[in-house]
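User: Fold this, then the next.

Assistant: Folding the first:
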Amino acid sequence: MKSPGCMTGPTTAARNSRGRRVTGHQIIREVGKTMLKTSRGQDDGQRGITGLETAIILIAFVVVASVFAFTVLSTGIFSSERSKETVFAGLDEVRSSLEPRGSVIAYKGQFPDGLTDSIYKVVFTVSNAVQGEAVNLTPPYTVGNDGDDPDIVSGAQYRMIVSYADNNQFINDLPWTVSFPGFDNGDNLLDAGEKAEITVWLADRVTTVANATDSGGIDIMDGSSGDGGESGISSTSTAPGVNDSWTLEVKPERGATLNIERTLPGRLDTIMDLR
């Protein structure tokens, strides 16, 4: 005879939490169901990253990094090219520029009224800066030493322009002539090793008068006489006199503009070295 409450096999009955009788087989079956649900829940909620997904992520990183690197390199190369162009442009500007040599000389003359003294021409010497490219100095005028000087060169294809400015006026294109003292290869190009003496004319030199400082030795430059220049000082009232400041701008075909700024002294001499 078996004792009550003693279970000797899987068919032995017991009571659950609700007071119902359950057998051993039922208990084993319920435990198995619980373990199966737990394992499935862990599989659904804690899935790992596979090797394929890792490879896709790495490839994406490599592609993005490659695009970024290409953009950075392209930007750097573009900036480098622009910098190189700027440097070469600056060198061309310098190599095609004029450099003043020596003094600036002004010459005095007297207008026909016998009262007005002024300067009628300014002379200075230039050379090619840093032994660079040749500068075209084909002149628009020449000096003939007869009638009124300077004399216009018909059809001259000149490339350099000289302008004048003071407190009373601005003249955009003054007459100018050129000579090449010392070494000269015979053309109108200012080459390395050459020097050019440029004469800028503000008024006509009347060569029929012996001296420029005599009355009528110079005259206004308005082209009315049919000789001389056509675009210089057109009135004695605006002619530069004592203590007047003025500026010449020499503008070659290429390169930087050469500015010459001077002030006339308190007394005008026949020839003045304007320092």
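Now the next one, as you asked:
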Amino acid sequence: MLYSRKSVYFQFLVKVHPTVFSEGNCQCRKRWSHQLSLDSLTLSRSRLRQTSHVPRKPSISPSKITTYLACPVKYRFTYLDDRAKWLLRAKSYYSFGSTLHRVLQRFHDSGDSGVTTTSEVLAAYDESWIDAGFSSAEEMAEAYGEGKEILERYVAEAQEKPVEAKTLFVERQLRHDFGDFVLIGRIDRVDEYEDGTLEVVDYKSGRTAVTEEDVAADIAMCCYQLLLSKKYPGRPTRARILALRTGTTAAHSLAGEELETFERDITTLARMILTEDFDQRKAVRKPMCDYCDFLTLCKQDPDFPEA
């Protein structure tokens, strides 16, 4: 399996294995575990940041990891610098996605008997709608209509499809203590199959397509399977991404040596993040800068280049 140099997963590999996956490489193979040794990457736990911004037991999440890999300066402003929180703006796509997640949580929650039909789902949709971040009433109305169509199709397909698994839980945070940090992840849904397999289901409101390679290369999906394997040792796990706009799904199972390798790599990267001196990080212009809430802070650096 090959990964583009631009992908987040490739950047993850570059961070963890800099001598193997250099910036000059355009693609790399996923199954690298037999070639690598992480002995030289062991980091001293005593170097963990002891500041007021980091709790005594630091936490790492898929969101933190992907933010760091995309831009360490954005990581600093998002999680460590209090002055930056005033610059955060509501995003329409967050509002849209959060609304759909809330409704699907109720639809799949066995304890919520009031949301089982299309009409009940649409009523829950209306109750759950978040209107923050839209630039106009017209934009919001268009998004609302799209969400309604998505849910109507979702419920119809769910009612027609034979039941193959039961929902174990919805919208739950899992955590595992790795000693000097805690890995946490909030999972949309976990289904349990008759053979004992536990499947993470992750809703994507902005996607129209997804492949097995996409799931395999998704750091969050890998983290969720790692957390599930810690909570339910010995149980087979699988992760599935559901593109809500089209109903397209794809799944991948992380197991055996592949799971062990990911655990070693993610713990190494977590310690790299938690021991980094972010005050020494210089802002570097990237394509994402034009859409970043923190651009005004980066522009205060006289060395930060103009667009």
